[in-house]
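Lecture 7 notes: from sequence to structure.
We start with the chain below.
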Amino acid sequence: MRSSASRREFLQVTSAAAAGAMFAGVGTSSQSLAQQAAASPNERLRIGCIGTGDRWKAVVSQAKQFGDVIAVCDVDANHMAEGRKMMLDAQSKSGREYTVDAYEDYRQILDRKDIDVVTIVTPDHWHSKIAIEAMQAGKDIYCEKPLTLTINEGKQIVKVLDETKRVFQVGTQQRTEMNQRFIQAVAIIRAGRIGKIKKVTCDIGGAPTSGMIPTADVPAGLNWERWLGQAPLVDFRFKSTEGRWGNSRCHYEFRWWYEYSGGKMTDWGAHHVDIASWAMGMDKSGPLSLEGIAKHPVEFKGGLPTRDDQYNTATEFDVTVMCPNDVEMHIVSKSPDGNGILFEGTDGRFHVSRGSIKGGVIDALKDNPLPEDALEKVYGGKIPRMHFENFVESIKARKQPISDVHSHHRAMTTCHLANIAIRLGRKINWDSQKQMIVGDADAAQWMGREQRKGYEINVSV
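Predicted structure tokens for the same chain:
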């Protein structure tokens, strides 16, 4: 068995020949480098999972194919116990012997030298702090979207990534999966099949309302103070409904509170705005200005909700984003074409969603298909079976994956700016080179948020 040091060195250093072969889609066998490493008992990744709620189950179903989960962490003891049991069951079925430890404090995972990779599947307001500390601890990271709660958090993550040179994959699976419809959409744009892009509409759906949610006892096993993290200390709230989760400030429902997330603007914007920016070539820059209208379930004053007893993220919205090259992006909660992205150019239009890609331009592909390697050129190499596999391939090559932090930060900046515009009710002008809101000092303060003592992110930007 390899020592921890030599094993880590193997994981972090891949020969130029092997890396070149991988990204050319050529290898010494039919298996990818990720599959080869997964098949080797000595070279399988050792993974620590931070956050083991519902969404984690989908992430770990891929992760465990390429590594062994040897530690789980959650501030909800019930999630933690369930996650540990799942991984013990996976260990039993694998025939390999290893322990699975469980922690409430994520720092105990980061302190372990035998853990190569961490997955971060927590509420949005915890992503950045954990990710930054994980990079500083020498871990490679797979983190669910949206990566950040604020624009400044994105700038902090980018700075630490550039300093530490870790491999960091964001969970925007549309870049790899969904029958590669979104990659095809980008390839169609790059091939000039609709001419010059004039307008892009991202339909990301609206958020739900809750009505008044009463205070309630904190569920047994949940460390509510720790769950709140950087957010203000508030009472736990819960109301039973016919739905799976009920109405609350916690777990899945955190998405509908600006204190912890950005509503649909960041939840689904992290997917569709990301793809639109990628296709438009705006993944290294950003918008020029944003303005729009929105409907919130509670009254706002100075950009802040005036009530704390019900969901507060926008239920309906229509934001116009002016982009370079005279392109208009619209981020809407509802459109005639439904959830997805509508691309309109001087020579045609088409719509792409997780379920379909359609339009006259798509029909024309029957007689005039894209080149065979068009999708791989967009992707930057051979497209793997699943998003996590691209992450492992990137670890082997010490190269940033397809859902890299830099481009995700730029897409999320657009989403955060859209939320600032609708919360303040005015136009926001953006300098993408300086990454600053310009001409509005009050709005510029919304690029960050005050963080509760003990939960600050101590990275200057």
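Points to note: Residues 4-176+390-397 form a domain with the Rossmann fold fold (CATH 3.40.50.720). Residues 1-29 have pLDDT under 50 and may be disordered.
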